């Protein structure tokens, strides 16, 4: 008796279906190497990911420092621009004994206000003020405009930065919020760049330390800096803050504000070593990779702290992603194996289903080729056979269409030719009696009449041309029968651009004239053609006030109208006018279908109405 492994191998080799065999083999070949490679890479890639994460965070921090330096430079530059203006130099860059002697012109003050307004963008730079030495200067606040003061006395300001300037020889100072008064932080901004302007020294006082004549204060928002710091890192719970060399916090993100990862300035170099390099440091909130970066020309430092627990998150995330990608490829390989095993059966079934479509309509070719193997050859042969069958069916349909058009033209030819003979006979009679003007009008009308009918080989005409055609017909008949009929056309202009089969109105008007109006005692009457749009159809009514149609003839006419389109023409005894009406109805139904054509309504002694219904098809320009 074979052992279980041998029996399992025999079953896999000889009894298992090909589809399942391919799926299992692909799964084994992919999953075993995947497990080995995953265990090997986890140990090697973890350290690589950690180092790469720290390097990328270090580069991002350096980029953030550059952004902060650029923002602070904008604030410093704004103060220097204000200090270099002619008005500020004339006011404050003077000897002490000349202070307050210069009276600025209103136009120059206005220009200074406009400059300050242009420099304040209300997003980063929030306000600009000039604090002057009111012990030497008169009240400059009288030059302030509106509710926005530009000139303010130093004596009215109680800010720590004034004492800082008095004990320092620096001309420029960047002040955190702790060095500003409450009024400054509330009205102007949380940070400030302050530039000292000094009295000019001449003569005997050249060796005396400079004395401040004014301070140009540019206030800016810490919110913008905090927004930049918030984007400094991609590590969760990272802490970033700015601290001054005087150990005063400038701005920071939320984790820095709660004190878990805060380092005072004196401890930066002791605990973090050299700047701009991350090192592992223990904090109250846990171990973290930390580094500090000097912000040039500011006396500020940016400190970036990355919790070690979240740095390892990136490594674990990478391994999870790695495993998921491998699992995805395993599933993809199994899916491909399933497709390979199913392709042969599925392609044969596809050809069979495509052949079965002949039961419900034309055979359809397969839109996608099935390859170059034996099944692909079968598919190509089927497509060739389908193309030949469809070509023969198209030829048959075209022959039927040509036959329909030939029958249509034959029906056109059946329109009463006696009209031409009678009109020519009338013209001959008018000529013999010397009525030349009437002969000219008759010839012109007849010429235009047949030009509209015969000038083109198309079966269609526009409704406008057909209305002109029937009006010419009535004009010629009135010349023959001494103005026996009045034609009234009430059709909207917008319908004149749609198509209608040629000679649609003429047989109906001829029937109304000869078998309606001419059959009354007075031999005169009116013919009215009205038309309108009804959904996707156009409807016309051709009505007259003639003798009408007797009920028995109306029933016969209605019955023949319903049967139009069949193979049986009207009876040979039918009147000529009714044959023209029958042919018109037959043409409409053969062109458009049984729902279109003519319908009749008549009352003896009152008149007749013929309704024409056809689809609304706009003529091609």
From TrEMBL:
It is found in: Membrane. Residues 559-578 are annotated as: Disordered. It comes from the Bacteria. SMART domains: HATPase_c. GO terms for molecular function: phosphorelay sensor kinase activity. Gene3D superfamilies: 6.10.340.10, Histidine kinase-like ATPase, C-terminal domain. The chain crosses the membrane at residues 23-43, 317-340. Residues 342-394 form the HAMP domain. Its main location: membrane. The keyword Phosphoprotein applies. One of its GO terms (cellular component) is membrane. Keywords: Kinase, Membrane, Phosphoprotein, Transferase, Transmembrane, Transmembrane helix. It holds the Pfam family HATPase_c. InterPro entries: Bact_2-comp_sensor_kinase, HAMP_dom, HATPase_C_sf, HATPase_dom, Sig_transdc_His_kin_internal. SUPFAM superfamilies: ATPase domain of HSP90 chaperone/DNA topoisomerase II/histidine kinase (SSF55874). This is Two-component system, sensor histidine kinase YesM.
């Amino acid at each position: 008796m074979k052992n279980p492994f041998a029996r399992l191998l025999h079953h896999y080799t000889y009894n298992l279906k090909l589809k399942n065999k391919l799926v299992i083999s692909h799964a084994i070949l992919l999953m075993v190497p995947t497990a080995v490679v995953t265990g090997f890479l986890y140990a090697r890639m973890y350290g690589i990911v950690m180092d790469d994460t720290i390097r990328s965070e270090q580069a991002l921090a350096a980029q953030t420092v550059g952004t902060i330096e650029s923002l602070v430079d904008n604030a410093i530059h704004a103060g220097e621009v204000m200090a270099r203006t002619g008005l500020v130099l004339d006011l404050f860059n003077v000897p002490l004994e000349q202070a307050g002697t210069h009276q600025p012109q209103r136009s120059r003050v206005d220009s200074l206000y406009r400059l300050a307004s242009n420099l304040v963008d209300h997003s980063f730079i929030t306000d600009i003020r000039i604090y002057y030495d009111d012990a030497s200067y008169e009240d400059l606040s009288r030059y302030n405009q509106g509710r926005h003061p530009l000139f303010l006395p130093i004596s009215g300001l109680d800010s720590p930065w004034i004492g800082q300037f008095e004990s320092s020889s620096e001309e420029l100072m960047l002040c955190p919020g702790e060095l500003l008064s409450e009024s400054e932080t509330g009205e102007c901004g949380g940070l400030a760049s302050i530039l000292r302007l000094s009295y000019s020294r001449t003569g005997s006082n050249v060796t005396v330390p400079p004395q401040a004549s004014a301070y140009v204060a540019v206030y800016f928002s810490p919110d913008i800096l905090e927004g930049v710091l918030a984007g400094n890192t991609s590590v969760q719970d990272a802490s970033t803050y700015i601290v001054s060399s005087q150990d005063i916090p400038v701005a920071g993100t939320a984790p820095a504000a709660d004190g878990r990862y805060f380092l005072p300035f004196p401890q930066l170099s002791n605990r973090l070593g050299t700047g701009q390099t991350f090192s592992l440091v223990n904090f109250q909130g846990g171990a973290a990779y930390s580094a500090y970066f000097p912000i040039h020309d500011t006396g500020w430092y940016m400190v970036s702290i990355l919790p070690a627990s979240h740095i390892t998150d990136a490594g674990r995330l990478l391994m999870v992603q790695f495993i998921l990608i491998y699992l995805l490829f395993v599933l993809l390989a199994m899916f491909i194996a399933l497709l390979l095993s199913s392709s042969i059966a599925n392609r044969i079934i596809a050809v069979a289903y495509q052949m079965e479509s002949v039961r419900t309509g034309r055979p359809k070719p397969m839109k996608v080729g099935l390859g170059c193997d034996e099944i692909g050859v079968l598919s190509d042969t089927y497509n060739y056979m389908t193309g030949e069958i469809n070509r023969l069916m198209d030829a048959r349909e075209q022959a039927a269409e040509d036959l329909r058009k030939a029958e249509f033209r034959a029906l056109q030819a059946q329109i009463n030719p006696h009209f031409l003979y009678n009109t020519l006979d009338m013209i001959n009679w008018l000529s013999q009696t010397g009525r030349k003007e009437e002969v000219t009008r008759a010839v012109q009308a007849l010429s235009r009449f047949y030009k509209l009918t015969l000038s083109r080989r198309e079966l269609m005409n526009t409704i406008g041309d057909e209305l002109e055609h029937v009006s010419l017909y009535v004009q010629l008949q009135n010349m023959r029968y001494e103005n026996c009929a009045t034609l009234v056309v009430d059709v909207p202009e917008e319908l004149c651009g749609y198509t209608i089969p040629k000679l649609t109105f003429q047989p109906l008007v001829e029937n109304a004239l000869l078998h309606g109006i001419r059959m009354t005692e007075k031999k005169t009457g009116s013919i009215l053609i009205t038309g309108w749009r009804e959904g996707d159809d156009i409807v016309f009514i051709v009505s007259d006030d003639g003798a009408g149609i007797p009920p028995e003839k109306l029933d016969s006419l209605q019955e023949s109208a319903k049967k139009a389109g069949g193979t049986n023409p009207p009876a040979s005894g039918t009147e000529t006018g009714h044959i023209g009406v029958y042919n018109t109805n037959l043409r409409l139904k053969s062109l458009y279908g049984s729902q279109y054509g003519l319908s009749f309504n008549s009352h003896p002694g009152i008149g007749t109405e013929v309704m024409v219904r056809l689809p609304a098809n706009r003529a091609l320009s």
